Amino acid sequence: MNEIRISSWSELQDRLFEDSWNQQLSRFRSQFAFRGLSDAGYRLETTLTRLGGNFAKLERHLLRNFKKYAHRNGVKPDSVWHWLSVAQHYGLPTRLLDWTHSPFFAMHFGTANLQHFDKDVAIWEVNYVKAHELLPEKLISQLGKEGANVFTVEMLSEALKSLGELQSLSQDDFVMFFEPPSIDERIVNQFALFSVMSDSGLALDQWLRSHHYLFRKIIIPAELKWEIRDKLDQANITERVLFPGLDGLSRWLKRHYSPRHIGNQNGHSMCLAY
Q1: Contacts of 238-245 spanning 24+ positions with Cβ under 8 A
Q2: Mind listing the pLDDT tens digit for each residue in 167-187?
């Protein structure tokens, strides 16, 4: 079963680290990418998809103009993968989707939004090693040449010069995962990686329905969110660490000192301070 509803903090740890034993290495080395969503009803849609309208045709215009105005910031001009990584990092709608190697960071992103504490959380796990077995031969060869399980932007730049070339590699849709360049401390601290679909119009969760063996969706009930959030804070999994700088510090302090709202018997809300 792909959707798993947990009932405790300890069960959550067991599920998140399930299947992480690597027999070949004799080490616990997970092959899963993790993504935490504050509302379990959210889909695995990119910011490009969420633009709506004819978003697929808008992609090249968005990226072209981003490159035009951001060129002075020193992005490698010949690599579409560097440009996409930088654009995604700074908020431009792209076909990329953010993931992390860390299940704890996924838990953070699933529980950081206090406005959604009445919603169940979803943590998606995708086995990127098995997903890469479905890649076109050219990309499988690139991974094999490097002895790698996941791409870097340099590896992709060597194999693919354009997004159009990506889609032309195969008639079958596929997904690949790559690690972004270390643009700043945020990417490094978040243990980040991106996924990219060969077809920008296809949502990843839609594709995964036909490849059910690649993923799990762990549901954290809303009633467990405060316990998990408080334990993450105690473990220093916070905005202050994941978003180094004064804005991350301010976000952490704002959330940490916000009152906890609960419903009382009269249907009104009351506050409990931390």
Answers
A1: 238/108, 239/112, 241/189, 242/105, 242/108, 242/186, 242/189, 242/190, 243/186, 244/185, 244/186, 244/189
A2: 889 889 999 999 998 888 888
Residue 176: which H helix or E strand, with range? strand 175-179
pTM for this predicted structure: 0.90
How far is Cα 110 from Cα 222, in angstroms, rounded to an integer?
11
Paired residues of 197 in beta bridges: 175
Q: Are 22 and 28 in contact (CB under 8 A)?
A: yes
C-alpha 47: how far from chain center: 12
Query: How far lies 28's CA from each of 32, 141, 212, in Å?
Result: 12, 26, 23
CA atoms of 135 and 145, how far apart (whole Å): 15
For the segment 104-136, what is each residue's pLDDT rounded down to a tens digit? 999 999 999 999 999 999 999 999 999 999 999
According to DSSP, the β-strands at 32-37 and 121-127 are antiparallel
Burial (Cβ within 10 Å: 0-12, 13-18, ≥19) of residue 231: middle
Residue with the two structure tokens 């990119």? 46
Residue 41 token pair: 């009803």
- The answer to whether residues 128 and 59 touch, using CB atoms and an 8 Å cutoff, is no
Task: Please calculate the CA angle 173-179-183 and round it to the nearest 5 degrees.
Answer: 130
Tokens at residue 12, please?
A: 């959550």
DSSP state of 32: E
Q: Alpha carbon 157 to chain centroid distance?
A: 21
240: Cβ contacts below 8 Å, ≥ 6 apart: 248, 249, 252
